[in-house]
Automatic annotation (TrEMBL):
It comes from Agaricus bisporus var. burnettii (strain JB137-S8 / ATCC MYA-4627 / FGSC 10392). Keywords: Oxidoreductase, Peroxisome, Purine metabolism. This is Uricase. One of its GO terms (biological process) is purine nucleobase catabolic process. Belongs to the uricase family. Catalyzes the oxidation of uric acid to 5-hydroxyisourate, which is further processed to form (S)-allantoin. Urate binds at T56, D57, F176, R193, V262, Q263, N289. GO terms for cellular component: peroxisome. Gene3D superfamilies: Urate Oxidase. 5-hydroxyisourate binds at T56, D57, F176, R193, V262, Q263, N289. Its EC number is 1.7.3.3. Coiled coil: none annotated. It is an enzyme of class 1 (oxidoreductase).
């Protein structure tokens, strides 16, 4: 005997690009959007009953639709909430929408003079009105789960956000000593080493509750959600500053910390984000320790390791294996 214990489905990685025109001053966002749905859909698996299926293909146009109509499109958190809220309130039998948005990093190109940009200081650089460049593979990540099962007449949304694929490296200011020495230990303790990682950060806000309007339960207006200080609103999920503060805290601690280990630096990063952002209840990092191995060049008659390994100048970056250091830091 067997039974269906969990089911969710949807369309993954729908690519959406949107321009918002403020006269000649354009804003652009590019998102990869994934939405997975749960609800009263089990018969589609167990009885081949497609009458309960919102086709994943429709999911593509639902995303384009909200990208077109949402006044919140430039904020990935609000866009994700708008999309999730719209879906669970439109389809009565869909109880939960799990929305993931990855925002690619398009930044304004700076140019000399002020022909096509905001007025800058004479001879200085100005931001261009409508020209952008991709600033690496880094992504801003948002995960929103909108759930209408938890409480009667209320949608509960959990919101987390963060960063992925932010590659950083420092060439000193990092050591790793005093670790366990036994018959398996080959690593040499060092007071000075390269520290490089690809930052994967997730911070989680307090849950938000969105009251369903009494008369028309099927038609939740997103405006209910964004009303500042609304019921259940306890933090700064709407505050665009959170992302920039969390990013700055992460890279500043990385750069300035005299690191005793990836673990110790990670904890300091998380502590600073919690301290600086009242609406965040939890921070999680996953940091691969990307190894750079000093090269022994004796084979070709060159000394690269004197007076010690820490003074090496030529290194071989290693793709795999890497250490993987992860932790969650929570508000007390
Ligand atoms: O910062 C580090 N933490 C570790 O747990 C570890 N293990 C290792 O081999 N190198 C390092 N570096």
């Amino acid at each position: 005997m067997s039974s269906l214990s969990r089911a969710e489905y949807g369309k993954a990685n729908v690519r959406v690009f949107r321009i918002v025109r403020d006269g000649k001053w354009h804003h652009v966002v590019e998102y990869n959007v994934t939405v997975l749905l749960q609800g009263d859909i089990s018969t589609s698996y167990t009885q081949a009953d497609n009458s309960v299926v919102v086709a994943t293909d429709s999911g593509v146009y639902l995303k384009f639709y909200i990208a077109k109509i949402s006044p919140h499109i430039l904020s990935p958190e609000k866009f994700a909430l708008h999309l999730g809220t719209f879906i669970v309130s439109k389809y009565g039998h869909i109880e939960k929408a799990d929305v993931r948005v990855e925002q690619l990093r398009w930044k304004r190109i700076s140019v000399s003079g002020n022909e096509n940009g905001k007025e800058g200081k004479e001879g200085g650089e100005v931001e261009h009105e409508h020209a952008f460049w991709r600033d690496g593979e880094e992504k801003r990540i948002v995960n929103v789960v909108v759930d209408k099962r938890k409480e009667k007449d209320t949608l509960i949304a959990s919101v987390s956000a963060g960063i992925s694929d932010l590659l950083v490296l420092k060439s000193t200011g990092s050591s790793f000593t005093d670790f366990i020495q036994d018959e398996f230990t080959t690593l040499i303790p060092v007071n000075d080493r390269i520290f490089s990682t690809s930052i994967d950060l997730t911070y989680t806000f307090q849950d938000i509750s969105i009251p369903l309007p009494k008369e028309e339960k099927k038609k939740v207006e997103f405006e209910v959600v964004v009303r500042e200080g609304g019921e259940g609103y306890k933090g700064s999920v709407w505050d665009e500053g959170v992302f920039e503060r969390a990013r700055k805290a992460t890279v500043e601690v990385f750069a300035n910390d005299e690191s005793a280990s990836v673990q110790a630096t990670l904890f300091k990063m998380g502590q600073r984000i919690i301290e600086e952002n009242g609406g965040i209840r939890e921070v999680r990092y996953a940091l691969p320790n990307k190894h750079y191995i000093p090269v022994n060049m004796e084979y070709i008659g060159i000394d690269n390791l004197t007076p010690c390994v820490a003074k090496a100048e030529v290194f071989c970056p290693i793709g795999a294996p890497s250490g993987l250091i992860s932790a969650t830091i929570s508000r007390k």
